[in-house]
């Protein structure tokens, strides 16, 4: 299944729809910024800076984009405002971290079982993301095991069990207020015994401080490594796109607490803050692997930067 299979008409439509609020907000601001202007001058660039910052792209990333456009203006001497869309597209694609999966399928590396540890604060859609991932992998014919290691919240454990039942995937759980590391150990052990393709471990969203969080995640890693020496193979940080700059702050905290290797940005359909995907990807140099653009299981999509930018700029 190649790029064009993955971006079926349905998937593209739900991506377009999921980014609609961001797109409308962005273009109405951009329209006002260049109203009555024919060339990209200093005033247009100032206005554009404001548009990008208020679209939650973030200050550092916005300045990079403006600087690149300034350089292009200097080279061309005369840049038409009608070309601004195309130039912005090109600059944004350049800033988005490289694609983690070039074929855009819910495939997995040869390594079995592939161990994914999922981190993120409570309320960002972490457990739902794990459930949707489990469902997508299961649908792709993969054998999946889930580990309910967010043992501080009964709701997280119950929710994961529910997803397990719904998708026909085993969930390893010791219940609430048990040792998260021992849940992770048993889940990985079970995955090996079942010859599973992937094991996904949910972890606590919030411990009292960063030191606690760091210690807890380190302990989970150490314990999993007793079963599989190089586990986890992926640490996926889930962020709620609708929180805008707050998502960037969360990314800062979690990248200090553990080695995050991939990002999932959820809830983009309910917000005009979709620009945060660009800022997070650029600032942390961690690839955005999944985006959530709706409630349905298939609305958790593999991120494709070209399709994302295309939907963002679709007139």
Automatic annotation (TrEMBL):
Query: Record's CDD domains?
Result: FtsY
Q: Which Pfam families match?
A: SRP54, SRP54_N
The subunit structure is:
Part of the signal recognition particle protein translocation system, which is composed of SRP and FtsY.
Q: Which GO terms describe its biological process?
A: SRP-dependent cotranslational protein targeting to membrane
Location, primary (coarse class)? membrane
Where found?
Cell membrane; Cytoplasm
| Family that this chain belongs to | Belongs to the GTP-binding SRP family. FtsY subfamily.
Q: Which reaction does it catalyse?
A: GTP + H2O = GDP + phosphate + H(+)
Keywords assigned by UniProt, alphabetized: Cell membrane, Cytoplasm, GTP-binding, Hydrolase, Membrane, Nucleotide-binding, Receptor
Q: What is the organism field in this record?
A: Flexibacter flexilis DSM 6793
Source lineage: Bacteria, Pseudomonadati, Bacteroidota, Cytophagia, Cytophagales
Single GO cellular component term: plasma membrane
Name of this chain's protein? Signal recognition particle receptor FtsY
Which residues bind GTP per the record?
120-127, 202-206, 266-269
Q: Which GO terms describe its molecular function?
A: GTP binding; GTPase activity; signal recognition particle binding
Q: What is its EC number?
A: 3.6.5.4
Q: What membrane topology is given?
A: Peripheral membrane protein
Q: Where is the SRP54-type proteins GTP-binding domain?
A: 287-300
Function as written in the Swiss-Prot or TrEMBL entry: Involved in targeting and insertion of nascent membrane proteins into the cytoplasmic membrane. Acts as a receptor for the complex formed by the signal recognition particle (SRP) and the ribosome-nascent chain (RNC).
